[in-house]
């Protein structure tokens, strides 16, 4: 369902836009994903709405067939500077795909009366989707800015955007979401 509204108490959740992650080859231009995510962060801040900046510092325990994060240098975990981190932003450090598991994210959002989250970042089929699924399960309205995310695989990205996200919430572009924040109808 295309994005229809932004609740008065909505938070932006930016997933894994950190130096090490954005350096990994992606299906879509990462610079545009970062630009759109930064524009949303600026818009949320301008409206006095929470901005949550999520970074990943390791992986969850358990066996997998895929590659795992080993020892990573500190700069790998640094947020990209384009996000222009502000003192009022909330930092979440995670060790799983999703931003809720083992973190204070739900407590932080509920403590501010947040009813909706807009989720952006990398990777669409991992960190973004896991965070969106958990938010949906916790009862938040979920909106996904599809032009502010990418994945290593175009096929995985497209699967999340076309098959999974419509079952979790609404999707829209940075421009549509910003227009709704500004009191427009989203048809910018």
UniProtKB/TrEMBL annotation:
What GO molecular functions are on record for this protein? Answer: hydrolase activity
Record organism: Umezawaea tangerina
Task: Give every Isochorismatase-like domain span.
Answer: 10-176
The family database entries (InterPro entries) matched by this protein are listed as: Isochorismatase-like_dom, Isochorismatase-like_hydrls, Isochorismatase-like_sf
- For the keyword Hydrolase, the answer is yes
Keyword field: Hydrolase
Query: What is the protein's given name?
Result: Nicotinamidase-related amidase
Q: Name the source's superkingdom.
A: Bacteria
């Amino acid at each position: 369902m295309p994005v229809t509204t932004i609740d008065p108490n909505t938070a932006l959740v930016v997933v894994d836009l950190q130096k090490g992650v954005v350096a990994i080859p992606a299906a879509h231009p990462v610079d545009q994903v970062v630009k759109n995510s930064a524009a949303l962060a600026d818009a949320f801040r301008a409206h006095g709405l929470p901005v949550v900046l999520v970074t990943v510092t390791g992986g969850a325990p358990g066996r997998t067939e895929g590659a795992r994060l080993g020892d990573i240098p500190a700069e790998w975990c640094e947020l990209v500077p384009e996000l222009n981190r502000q003192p009022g932003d909330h930092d979440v450090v995670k060790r799983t795909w999703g931003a809720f598991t083992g973190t204070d994210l739900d407590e932080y959002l509920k403590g501010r009366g947040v009813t909706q989250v807009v989720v952006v970042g990398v990777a669409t089929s991992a960190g973004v989707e896991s965070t969106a699924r958990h938010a949906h399960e916790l009862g938040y309205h979920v909106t996904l800015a599809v032009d502010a995310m990418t994945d290593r695989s175009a096929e995985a990205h497209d699967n999340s955007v076309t098959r999974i996200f419509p079952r979790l919430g609404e999707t829209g572009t940075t421009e549509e979401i910003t227009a709704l924040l500004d009191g427009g109808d989203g048809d910018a």
